[in-house]
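User: I've been going back and forth on whether these two constructs are worth ordering. Before I decide, could you fold them both?

Assistant: Sure. I'll take them in the order you sent them. The first construct and its structure tokens:
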Amino acid sequence: MMNDLVARLGALPTAAISDALDRAGIKGALHGLSPLSNDFRAVGPAFTVRYAPVNECGVGTVGDFLDDVPPGSVVVIDNDGRTDVTVWGGIMTEVAAHRGIAGTVINGVCRDVSASLAQSYPLFSRGRFMRTGKDRVRLVAVDEPVTVSGVEIHPGNLLCADADGVVAVPAVETERITETAERIERVEADIVAAAHAGSTLREAREKFGYHTLQTRTQA
């Protein structure tokens, strides 16, 4: 069942999924995260990681958690939005791509961009910067909830990412959000078809209920 939903979400743009989340009154859009390539797409259950600045010992490490990430997962790294040190680089990209990990979302920055592009490994971040996080940040939590852009992401939440950015779908809401997003896509396709057939955009939008597509439903 979940694999089917992942496949269906993977066929949908994040714009439709975001609209479906809005209609359900669920906050899920991760503001400020962008792909390294507009061709990148990723969808899968979240494997969550959280970093913090090094303590007084000045010793830290990045990346060893990758051995525990199941294939098909989307790694979600919370480095508190820092853009002065990286928490993902070329070695991690090569290993993740080889192991079938679906992609990585970083509340922070990455480096070794060329490796990501060469491997077609989907990376979404707040930017790119070459300075290592080793001995500057430390791993403080794995497989625990993290908060990115004000959105709480639990392990197993579905992460969907494409050229427009990243959205997080609560696991318990996946079926409802998927069905709503698919309906939104169908309605928008009907509007375009009607306009191509000679209807005015105003008439087509009115006919197919465009202006209420994202209106929050009542529980």
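The second construct, handled the same way:
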Amino acid sequence: MKNLIVAVLAVSLFSCAENKDKIGPIKKEIVPVRKDSNITTIHHYDGRCNIDNDVSSLGIGMVIAPLKFVMYDDSLLKGESQQVDMYGKYDSLNNVCSCVFDPEYGLMHFACIGKTDRAYKVLINYSQVKWLPREKDFQFKTWEQYIESSFGIRRKTTTDSTRTPIGLVRKEPSDQADTLSIPAGQEMFCAMQVKGDWIKVQYDCFYNTENNPYEGQPCHNFINKCANPVTGWLRWRQDNQQLIDIFLMP
């Protein structure tokens, strides 16, 4: 896990401290602009697509697209269409900026704001609406499923020189609840349960261990082996803004 981050979502998410985050078959001809996964405020699409991109609405979940797909302007999938090939010509990716965007690793995850029997209603370029077919090659996950199936999560940080983690670990899913302290070092949490805007998390006691025996494994494979585990709640979104990096790969 210390070799790749996506935030996605971030997928953050989805690079961060010590470039701990990425593996995969790099396609050198596709080089999207990168940025830190630090939380920012973006109110419109500025023409740049990063790994982790703000959207006007986080919606009901995420749609995970295949390497090649078609998107449409209408819910009946009969209007104007656009072919997208992540491993083909970079031109097919022009003006298609998804919530999680890293075609080098086959990652284009779209914030889904609705669905019909035929199609998913998704966002690109912050607030532009497109439609993807509800076919087997497209995978839809609610935010609960998306977060709980991740390899791990961590808090985004402020953009100033302090790089302070955003939010506190609390004993209950409430901004008024007492806080918990976590061990010093680079943090990583395992998402145990999503409850609205909050996630029940357990601190990954192995993340800062030299020669981590569980390196590259999903956190649910080993998190119960932590002695005296620190368990609490993190707010993962507020005012439609994502407050965490989500690790989608080891």
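Notes on the second construct follow. Residues 237 and 243 are 5 Å apart (CA to CA). The chain has two domains: 8-145, 156-244.
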